[in-house]
Design goal:
This protein has 8 helices and 9 strands. By secondary structure, the chain is an alpha/beta fold. The model has no long low-confidence stretch (mean pLDDT 98).
């Protein structure tokens, strides 16, 4: 099945206003038989979005309309493409209880979701690791250097994988190497392989999938897929299911670089 398992929507505050229909029609034209819409889930109650415009995620006020819109679209396009209703859920260290409560309420309406790490806590304050290169540099300085920031990122991803978020916890781990987003500007000498191996071992225990996310190729300071091919091959050796994701925030990027995914898997 040709599936794009990581697609955003007009409900994304930092995305485009391209319509659901435009995303869907693009997927159909590119020969996809399935698509999962994974809008950024509302951030947990009590968590303050650290980005300047507070636009990291869909607000709580939109979640019901998001779900009902996708239910209607599933029916409308059922002869053309299999539409899955999903969310990209943030794992935020310290907000596990609130996240589990959210998933207990909305999980029954979801078909297929992603667990991602975007936020890291440094000196009692949260930062968005992929916001921009200036924030990344500040985070590196606060953590004691690039290598320490990498270590914090991967240890947080591991915590997310082993966390108890209830029966509706997402089964797919999103862009595992997101920390590479600014690698052309900030080169690390950190050996991430032991962390990756441990993360994969815990994913295997829980039957989790890996998001093979091509959006890194579209980032000026990254220039590689999340994760790169050596980590994809390591996941294959561990028999971790690999799911292609464009991470499209505009309709034109649906299915982007799918041929590269096919070659590697």
């Amino acid at each position: 099945m040709k599936k794009d398992g990581h697609v955003h929507t007009p409900f994304c505050p930092h995305g485009t206003d391209d319509s659901f229909e435009l995303y869907i029609e693009t997927a159909i034209k590119k020969g996809f038989s399935a698509i999962t819409f994974t809008e950024h889930a509302p951030l947990p109650e009590g968590f303050v979005d650290p980005t300047p415009d507070k636009d990291s995620a869909m607000p709580f006020s939109d979640i019901d309309r998001y779900l009902s819109t996708l239910l209607d679209l599933k029916k409308q396009y059922k002869r053309d493409i299999d539409i899955h209703i999903g969310l990209e859920v943030d794992y935020i260290n310290g907000f596990e209880r609130e996240t589990a409560q959210f998933l207990d309420k909305y999980g029954p309406f979801l078909d297929d979701s992603i667990l991602s790490v975007h936020f890291l806590k440094l000196n009692g304050q949260y930062y968005c690791v992929d916001f921009d290169e200036h924030t990344f540099q500040k985070m590196a300085e606060l953590s004691g250097g690039i290598n320490h920031l990498y270590e914090l990122y991967y240890s947080t991803v591991l915590k997310g994988v082993v966390s108890d978020l209830g029966k509706y916890k997402p089964k797919r781990l999103g862009h595992i190497t997101l920390i590479h987003k600014f690698q052309k500007l900030f080169q690390a000498t950190f050996d991430e392989k032991p962390y990756i191996e441990q993360i994969f071992a815990e994913m295997n225990k829980r039957g989790m999938e890996l998001d093979v996310n091509t959006s890194g190729l579209r980032k000026a300071f990254c220039g590689e897929i999340y994760p790169p091919e050596d980590i994809i091959q390591a996941a294959k050796k561990q028999s971790i299911p690999l799911v292609y994701g464009s991470d499209a925030h505009s309709a034109k990027d649906v299915g982007s670089d799918f041929s590269l995914f096919e070659k590697m898997v």
